[in-house]
Amino acid sequence: MGGFTYETRKKLTEQRILEAKAAGKDLTGMEKKLLPDPYYSVKTEPLQWMTSLLENGEAGTLSEIYKRELPGLVRVCVPEGQEEEFYYALDQMNQFQMTAGWYRRSLRTKEYIPFVRQSVSLLWAYSQLKFYKASLAEILTGKTDPEIYDHARTESWPYAGILAAQIDLGREETVRAVREILYGENNTAMLSREMIRGIVMSRDTGLYKVLGDFLLAARLQEGARQAVCETMDAGRPEAFLSLFQVIEDHDLIRFSSVKRAVGTWIGIFDENSADRISNKLLHLMGKCLREPEFCEEQLRSNDSVAISCALWAKGFYDAGAGVEAVLELIKNGTKNQKLTASYFNRSLQDQRLSARAAREVFLTYPEDLELMACYLPGFMGSLYSIMSDLVWGKRTGWFSVEREEASEPEKLPVTAYGLFENEEEARKIYGIFKNAMERIPKKGLDLDPCIFPWYRVTMSRSDLAARMCVIAWMLQDETYLDEAAALVPVVGQGQVYGASRAMTARLLLYRPESRARRDILFELLHNPEEYTVSSAFCLAKALEDLDLSLIHI
Q1: Tell me: the pLDDT tens digits for 337-386?
Q2: Which of the pair, 259 or 132, is modelled with greater confidence?
Q3: To which H or E segment does residue 446 belong?
Q4: Bridge partner list, 446
Q5: Phi and psi at residue 458, in whole multiples of 5°?
Q6: Contact (CB, 8 A) for 182 and 210
Q7: What gap in Å lies between CA 129 and CA 125, rounded to an integer?
Q8: Which residues contact 71 (CB under 8 A, 6 or more apart)?
Q9: CB 274: neighbour CB atoms within 10 A?
Q10: Residue 192 contacts residue 154 (beta carbons within 8 Å)
Q11: Contact (Cβ atoms closer than 8 angstroms) between residue 497 and residue 458
C-alpha cells in the first residue's frame, strides 16, 4: 500500500513487542518467557512445560492452563473483555487439523497436546489485535488507520482462531465483515487463507455455504480456488464435508488446483503425479468419510490406494482411531497391508501416536528389514529435534553446534516423547536395531519404488545408529553408552551436509566417565566432518577440570 514500506512495518512490529514487554514487566517465570515474539517463535521450555501439564493430567484443557497458570500473561495480551472469547478459542482447537505444512494430512485428535504451540500463537494474535486498537471487523474491512491496515495485511498475523471464535459467539459485526468480503465485487479487503481458515474453523454452516458459492463463482481465478481448497481441511469436519460435496457435485476435480489440494489432504500422490488424481479417487475418499462400513471394507482389501483412503478417513475424525486400524493391520494383515499402513503412520506428525505402531512392528517382526525401514520414519521421526532438546536442555536461544560451549545434556526417562512404555522395551528395541545394523547392507536399504510407484523408502546404518545413541543416553547404562558411542562416526555417513554426528557426539561424550568414551572423543578430533571436529574440540575443553592423567591422545 502506498507510503508504507518494509521499514515502516518493521518499526510498527518493534513498537508492538516493546509495548507488550512493558505491559508484562512485572511478570515472572513462564509468563515472562511467553511474552510475544515478533516472528511468532516460541521457546522450547514453556512448550515442554505446557505439554507435561497435559500429559500428566494436571490440566485437562488448554484454557485451564492459561486460566490457572498464566493469568497475568492473559491480562497483558488479550484485549479487555475478550478473555472468555480467548478461552473458548483455545478449547475448540482439538476440533481442527492437528498437522501442518506441505506434508500435512487432514487428521484430527481429541487431545490438546498437538495444539500447545498453536495456543501460544493464538495468544500472540490477540496481543497483536490489542496493539492495533481496533476490532477484528474494522481491520478486515479496512475501516481503521491505513498504516495499521497495511501492517495487518502484510505482516504475519494468525487471526483465524479469533475470527472463528467471534463467528461462533455471534459477533454480528464480524460475520457481516466476512460476508462483505466474500460477496464484494471489487474485492480489495482481506480475503486470505487466514480468513478461509477462520470460516472453516467456525460452526457457521451458513458461511460454509457462502464459501462454497465463492468457490463456484465464475469470476473466481485459479489462485483463489487453490487458496480455498488447500485450506478447507484446516477446520471442522463439517466444514470440509460441506465444501467436499461442492467439489464432487460440480466436478471441480477437473481443475489442477483442486487436484493438488486433494493430493495434500490425503497424501498418496506427490506434487509431480497430481494428474493421477481422478473422480474415482474423490468418490472413494467421500464414501470412506461418509460410510463407516464401506471404510472397514477397504481396510480388508489388498489395494494400497483403498487402504490409504480408509486410514485417512479414520484419521480425519480421530488420528487415534487411525492408529488402532494400523495396529490391527500390523497384527493380522498381509505384508502389503502392513507396508501400506506405514505410509499413513509416517504422516501423523505426532511422535506418540506414530511410535506406537512403529514399536509394534519392531517387536513383532524384528527380522523384517523392509517393514523396519517403512516404519522407522515414524519412530523418532524428528530425531534431530529430540537430540537438540536433550543436548541444549532448558537453555534458550539459538545455538551453534560448532562453537557452543559444551554442557551436560538433559537426562530424560525412556518414556519421554512417547518413545517407549518402559526400560525393558527400550532395551529390546535397542537390541533389534543392533541386530539390524549387522544385517543391513553397507550402502543401506533402498526400496524404490515402495507401496506406490512414486514412493521411495531408504534406511541407512546412520539412521539406526543415531536412534541407538538416543536410546543409550536415555537408559544411562554405562555398557550401552560405551557401545553406542562407538557408533558416533557412523552417524551422518553418506550425508552431504548435516550436523547429526556432531549432535550425537555432544549427547554421548560430555565429560565421559569411561576410558572407552574418552578415546572415542579424542579420535573425533581427527574426524573428516568439520562440525564433528569443532564439537569434539568443545567437548575436549570441558575435560580440563578432570584428572588429566586419565586422558591420552
Answers
A1: 999 999 999 999 899 999 999 999 999 999 999 999 999 999 998 898 89
A2: 132
A3: strand 445-447
A4: 458
A5: -125, 150
A6: yes
A7: 6
A8: none
A9: 17
A10: no
A11: no
Distance of CA 334 to the CA centre of its chain: 30
What CA–CA distance (Å, rounded) separates 220 from 224? 6
Cis peptide before 449 (omega within 30 of 0): yes
C-alpha cell at 121: 500463537
**Residue 314 pLDDT > 60:** yes
Full 3-state SS string of 338-362: HHHHHHHHCCCCCHHHHHHHHHHHH
Nearest-angstrom CA–CA distance, 463 and 470: 11
Task: Measure the CA–CA gap between 165 and 157, rounded to whole angstroms.
Answer: 16
Q: What is the pTM of this model?
A: 0.91
3-state secondary structure of 94: helix
What pLDDT shows up at residue 48?
Answer: 87
Find the distance separating the first CA and the last CA of the chain, reported in whole Å.
Answer: 64
Q: Are the C-beta atoms of residues 437 and 461 closer than 8 Å to each other?
A: yes
Q: Name the strand (E) or helix (H) holding 445.
A: strand 445-447
Q: Which residues contact 204 (CB under 8 A, 6 or more apart)?
A: 167, 168, 175
Contact 128, 17 (CB under 8 A): no
Long-range contacts at 166-171 (CB < 8 A, ≥ 24 apart): 166/85, 166/136, 167/198, 167/199, 167/202, 167/203, 167/204, 167/207, 168/88, 168/92, 168/202, 168/203, 168/204, 169/85, 169/88, 171/136, 171/137
What distance in Å separates the CA atoms of residue 264 and residue 262, rounded to the nearest whole number?
A: 5
Cα-flanking dihedrals φ and ψ of residue 71, to 5°? -65, -35
Look at residue 266 in the predicted model and tell me its pLDDT: 87
Contacts of 346 (CB under 8 A, 6+ apart): 354, 374, 375, 377, 378, 381
Q: Cell digits for 82?
A: 475478550
**DSSP state, residue 41:** P
Considering Cα of 314, then 315, then 321, then 324, what sign does the dihedral take?
positive
> Which DSSP helix (H) or strand (E) runs through 312?
helix 304-317
From residue 289, how far is each of 212, 245, 270, 318, 321 by CA, in Å? Answer: 19, 11, 22, 12, 13
Estimate the crossing angle of helix 116-132 against helix 83-91, to 10 degrees. 150
**Grid coordinates standing for 417?**
516423547
Record the cell numbers describing residue 174, joined without a space: 464480524
pLDDT at 552: 46
Give the C-alpha distances (Å, rounded to integers) separating 168 from 161, 305, 443, 507: 11, 37, 56, 48
pLDDT tens for residues 53-101? 999 999 999 999 999 999 999 999 999 999 999 999 999 999 999 987 7
Residue length, the chain?
553
Q: What is the mean pLDDT of the chain?
A: 92
**Closest by CA position to 462, among listed 498, 422, 429:** 498
The answer to whether residues 257 and 222 touch, using CB atoms and an 8 Å cutoff, is: yes
Do the Cβ atoms of 362 and 374 come closer than 8 Å? no
Strands 445-447 and 457-459: antiparallel
Q: Provide φ and ψ at 445, rounded to 5°.
A: -100, 130
d(CA 34, CA 44): 10
Q: Which backbone phi and psi does 307 adopt, to 5 degrees?
A: -60, -45
Using CA atoms in the order 463, 465, 467, 470, what is the torsion angle rounded to 10 degrees? Answer: -150
